[in-house]
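Hey team,

Filing this mostly as a record. A colleague (T.K.) asked me to run one chain through the structure pipeline before their review meeting, and I want the input and output archived in the tracker in case anyone asks later how it was produced. No errors, nothing strange. Just documentation.

Input sequence:
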Amino acid sequence: MLSTRAAAALYVGAVLGPGVLIVPALASEAAGPASVLAWAVLLALSAPLAITFAALGVRYPEAGGTAAYARAAFGSRIGAITGWWFLAGVVLGAPAVALVGGFYVAELLGVGREAAVAGAVVMMGTVTVANLVGLRTSARLGLGLAALLAALLLVAVVTALPESRAEHWTPFAPHGWAAVGTAASLLMLSFIGWEAVSHLAGELRDPARQLPRAIFGALAVVVVLYLGLAIATVGVLGTAEPTDVPLADLMAAGLGEAGRTATAAIAVLLTMGTMNAYVAAAVKLAGALSEEGSAPAWLARPDRALAAFAVVAGLLLAPLGADVLSLDGLVRATSAAFVAVYVTATAAGVRLLSGAARRAAAVACAAVIVVLGFSGPYLAVPAAIALIGVSLPRRRSPVPACEQVSAAAS
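Output structure:
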């Protein structure tokens, strides 16, 4: 059985991820100092999201996560589309995360963009091969890496804040107030994860009491870390000169070059660990969708799913490396896919829950719909995936894919 403290630690680990290695800088570039408002809005949104998923986890402790909630509320077709959105977020996000890790590799070695791309290719290849032979990053290792990242963020913020400059805060909204919404759509990549541990309610002795405490304990930690990171990113680094390694630059501002080197090394470990977990999730989910009849039959074989993943990753890394496809654009496409998952999951909460939990789900659903609206042209990503999902012929199968989504994402 899990203790409340252990569950809170798992939640912090689920929310924190490699997105914080680059997304804060992308958000400040998009909205300037006003990007801190996007952080504040998303942190406020985290409360109703946490309430919604806590309530769903308590009510459906055996359920399979977001896609299972969507299936319970709206039927198998919506559940399958939600699973496809999750799968697309992983497939699109992995090359972006790999390139971010590549930037930190290049920073560690003192080399250029070509080496960053090469590092991304090596990491993608390593993760693909590892999954092909059946290796997995253990949950304990993943939790350890998340704890390391949390400590790193805290050190970066505390040591760098004294180097803040007042002139970095003016003009406050250089790109207009609408840019705050654009920044929020980018930042959502760093807020995905509130749903990830709700299905562990069955591992708690008293989920009705422990799960809300665990989620809100995690929320308090995330609020402190993320607000500190947002303020430090703008105040110390400014928004005039974008950087590919903002966390390393923050550490260097406070601790010198030793801090930069340590950050780069940790960033590589974090990137690899997260990529491995999510690639494994994508492969399992692809197989589950295939077995349910919501995906082509050939995806049921892990080696074929991995081959398809490697091909897509290669097709995305090539234009990323040539700077034809922007990292910002790929992050926004990934965020749009994941926010779409949250839309159906919170809408399911509105339908399945009652009382205060239902009101929280309604607030969360309305908020994520607004955030999704700021995805702009990247709305085409979840729209196209939904269209494909609706048009795919369904085969009969006794195995509902959405009941395996949670296992795949864990």
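Quick notes for T.K.: Confidence is low (pLDDT under 50) at residues 398-410. The chain is about 75% helix and 0% strand.
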